[in-house]
Amino acid sequence: MVFAAPGEALARAEEVLGDRPAPLHASVAHQVIGIWQRDFGDMRLALSHLRRARAWAARADSAEREADVLATLGVALVHAGRTRQGMDALGRGVERGTGHTRARVLFRRAYSWWVLGHHKEALEDVRRAIPVLRQAEDVIWTARALTLRATVHLALGSVERANADFTAAEALWDTTGQEHDKADAVESRGLAAFRAGDVPAALRLLDEAEERYAKLGTPTFMLDIRRCEVLMAAGLAAEALAEADAALRALDGIGGQSTRKAELLLAAARAARLAGEPQTAIARAALAVRLFAGQRRTWWETHARLVLIGARHAAGRGSGRLVADAAAVAERLAALGAPAAPEASLLAGRIALDLGWTADAERHLAVAARSRRGGPPLARMTGWAAQALRAQSAGSARGVLEACRRGLDVLDDHRMTLGASELRARATAQGAELAALAQRASLVSGGPRRLLVWSERWRATALSAPPTRPPADPALLSGMTAYREIAARAEEARMEGRPVPALEREQRRLEREIRSRTLHMRGEAPDDGDRFDVGRLLARLGDNDDGQLVELAVLDGRVQVLLCGQGRVRRFEAGLLAAAETEAEHVQAGLRRLAHPGAQARLPVVEAAGRRLEELLLGPAAAHLGDGPVVIVPPGRLHRVPWALLPSLRERVLSVSPSASSWLRAKETAPPPGGRQVLVRGPGLATGGAEVPELADRYGGATVLEYDDATVPRVLRELDGAGLAHIAAHGAFRADGPLFSSLRMADGPLIVHDFERLDRSPYRIILSCCDTARFATVGADELLGLVTALLPLGTAGVVACSAPVNDAAVVPLMVALHEALGTGLSLAEALRDARAGLPADALHRATGWAFTAFGAA
């Protein structure tokens, strides 16, 4: 009962002890309390009760009872970090027990071997236990033993064997009332899904297990560790670090298991390393190494040493000693049969390359490269990264490009199993090194065309296919409705000056629930293999009145300008990316000031910053742009640049695209039949959305949604498949959760997750509000925000704003923009003409610069 209904079991055990029980019953009661404290509470209390349980068993003169208690005590001692004492107790339990009892003790010793990382010994004990447990028709313990054997198989990389045991165990659990063990089975299936490379299924199953544990009121430290592992693989390293640290605080708060603390520290160290916090990773990993060593857990200690070495390397501490340490860890992991062995060999090879030790590097990289032929996607990625480094060291540009191509193909296949746009975007971080290696090799050996191809190969790939449409999940739909209601109430309370902490807590809870459910979505769209074609791009640009496309690649911190047009690709070298980012922030600050009347004196300062930005971003290429339209394809980190401020771009037709491929798709997207116009006016605008009535008169039969009609469900229904949409509403960008960036409607926020429910977003959409063109940069070079949510869903052109603007100055700009559209111009052409028609004062000029045309419509 202690696992099926832990609270009730604890109460019943305490009740038994209160009635002066016989020695046998007292032993059972103390053992139950000891198990509860061991797994859900204070280890010191657990050991105290289990020692009393053993003493009462001896008084009862029951060898079987004593064997059973010794097994429970042994597991507790192992979890407390007293490994030798724990294994001694388990050994005595095996000697004293017979038959069925002995099989249960063998199972618990197998579990302890698994905790310690001794997988061969664990398999041997559990294999001896299972036939006896089956013969005794002990369903619960047989299911536990099968679950354990599956978990050991997973640790050794045997996914198929693990799945067979999990399936058999689950069939047995269905016949019992063991709710805790059932939750554990769901958790284990989540781990198996992760090992098989199915991240969405893993997240869904782990979340389900967490819900089951919550109903039982039991802590979930093992699940926390596994969830951190999955989050890291999904590119959510910072989130994994926060979860691991929170679990560590909770574990310390109850005086919990020392073994779990060490494992949580290891998870935190891994997450910190991936999140770019090497010093945090070093601190966590060093403590984990000490704990594992004290617990005599060689398997775990070796993995912690791997993370520690990697973190030291990331912190710039390369040395011959570090190479030797990484090589020793690789050998030890290989001897233990650990799937992480190739990762250690790759690390040894990297450090050796940094030191110029090419022979040593080749030896280690050759070992790591073997993993490219099989196993989970990320293991194959490790192998291809090693192969690419080998080729680079040997001076073979062709070998580098081939290895990078194969490795990124593996990652493409993995990404397309992910349904959520956030996960697709973040997963690209795994390919950043391969993409950079290929770009360097192509720059050296292939000229501008090849550099363009590789710049495109890993740019804005999350936009290459629409995200999986969220399912018609009643819980998800009701959660989003509740989220809108709570967010609207919180906004209303803020405007009235009332406190909102309770509403904000509920809003954050609903956000977590919505995000969690969307991350469970599995990808449906296969990679169609439509690779970027330079010739196709140049032909399209030739059709575009001799337009030019400017793709900015970044190699070793410097901007490389690839100027595409007139049948050729040319390369120019510009300034440092870091300097350009700093200058872009100064420009944004300047535009914020110019949005307020009376800031005319700041105009020359902002214009001077624009000139410096042009020199850093375009360099000598600015003199070769010609007179035609220009498409800018910037790296993600430059998404906040107001491109129209740059002198050479100020008077021309200008559009921005996340990638050349994305621009081509937009160019070839046909408008929907009918060309419906939808005009939306949200609440609370300083001008009241004054351009909307004027536009309604201009378009005649347009659908106008305003006041109480501008609700999220109604707006989404009208936007779906529209030819042109204009939305005047307050925009809010969420850097901490970009897919919760929103437009304020009458019933609450219209968020990015809502747009992803559209069958087809509007062909053209104009967002006449602040911050709608702001994005979060994630993964290798991906952007998450309102605009990037629309582009894969059928939108070919967007006009949006990257800075705060003056509401009153926006109205004439928008009216002029629609007047120009009425003459048959594209969004980029219409925006250029609308800017030119504005008054020449600083307020209106800054407003024009803040808006950008995205796409090609």
TrEMBL record:
Coiled coil: none annotated. It comes from the Bacteria. Gene3D superfamilies: Tetratricopeptide repeat domain. Residues 608-855 form the CHAT domain. This is CHAT domain-containing tetratricopeptide repeat protein. It comes from Streptomyces atrovirens.
